[in-house]
Amino acid sequence: LLTTQLIFFQEDYKIFLPHKLVHRIKLSQSNILGKLLMQEMKEEKFS
Fold first, then answer.
1. Whole-structure pTM value
2. What does the buried/exposed string (b/e) look like for 23-32 if buried means 16 or more CB atoms within 10 Å of the residue's CB?
3. pLDDT score recorded for residue 36
């Protein structure tokens, strides 16, 4: 359940945040949302 909630939370941020801000969050290793975005982008490259 927690994983599903994190996925929806992540999707909401990708929809509403400007691309540059998403990129900045992605680069922030100390930011948990940034870590989630980085992981998803890696998975998308290999899918």
1. 0.30
2. eebbeeeeee
3. 78
Closest C-alpha among 29, 2, 31 to residue 13: 31
Q: Tell me the pLDDT of the chain averaged across its residues.
A: 62
Q: How far apart are CA 47 and CA 17, in angstroms?
A: 24
- Average pLDDT of 19-37? 63
Which of 2, 10, 1 has the alpha carbon at shortest distance from 33?
Answer: 10
Instruction: Give CA–CA dist 38/25, Å, rounded.
Output: 9
List all residues 6 or more positions away from 41 whose beta carbon is below 8 Å from its beta carbon: 26
